[in-house]
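Title: Comparing notes on inverse folding

I've been comparing how different people in this forum approach sequence design from structure. To keep things fair, I'm posting one structure and asking everyone to reply with a full sequence. Here's the target:
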């Protein structure tokens, strides 16, 4: 890990050999999905060199997708996650957000678990060691390795391996072997603006955000 001092704060950078896919200034090279069921008007801004995503309007989520598709890769990023939110890091995602997913949900304690988004996953995984390394209300690093037509997926959080899974089969429709990187803000299915308040829904609190920075990838032959 390369470390740099920025404004007096210890600021982690992507590991050597990784190529940045977020320039820190705008979302060039990325786009908001216009076909996902999560929502199509996701709020996505860049603040302090980080992508900041949230529901827009409240109740409607969405997925920010890389323009480029990847097959075999290691993905590195850092995330800072507000409480009472639900989202995910999508890997080999389709335009409509069908993907293997590293879930981000602090409310239910499932951040780091391997799930499917809009598809069943033959073999899921649980990040049992996450609580030992997780920094609440702070930046945490995710490194995800995905290889093979039959996906072999490994996750590290803050440089500690959480799980290593080889799927029994390719779970994608028609056996897709490439896809986009996605950052998801979950929709809030039960929200009604007529209520005038949040009503305690746990998927996304009003004003809450997910922040992502130092997003980089290393493609693997």
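Reply #1:
Here's my take.
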């Amino acid at each position: 890990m390369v470390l740099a001092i920025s404004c007096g704060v210890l600021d982690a950078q992507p590991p050597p050999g990784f190529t940045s896919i977020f320039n820190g200034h705008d979302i060039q090279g990325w786009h908001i999905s216009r076909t996902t069921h999560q929502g199509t008007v996701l709020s996505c801004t860049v603040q302090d060199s980080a992508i900041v995503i949230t529901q827009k309007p409240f109740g409607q989520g969405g997925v920010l997708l890389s323009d480029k598709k990847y097959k075999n890769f290691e993905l590195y990023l850092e995330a800072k996650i507000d409480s009472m939110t639900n989202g995910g890091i999508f890997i080999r995602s389709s335009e409509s957000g069908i993907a293997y997913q590293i879930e981000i949900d602090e409310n239910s304690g499932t951040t780091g678990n391997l799930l499917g988004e809009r598809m069943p996953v033959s073999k899921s995984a649980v990040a049992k060691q996450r609580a030992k390394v997780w920094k609440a209300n702070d930046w945490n690093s995710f490194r995800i390795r995905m290889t093979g037509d039959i996906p072999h997926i490994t996750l590290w959080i803050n440089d500690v391996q959480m799980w290593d899974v080889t799927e029994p089969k390719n779970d994608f429709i028609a056996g897709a072997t490439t896809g986009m990187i996605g950052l998801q803000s979950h929709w809030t299915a039960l929200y009604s603006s007529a209520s005038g308040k949040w009503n305690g829904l746990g998927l996304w609190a009003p004003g809450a955000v997910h922040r992502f920075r130092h997003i980089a990838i290393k493609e693997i032959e």
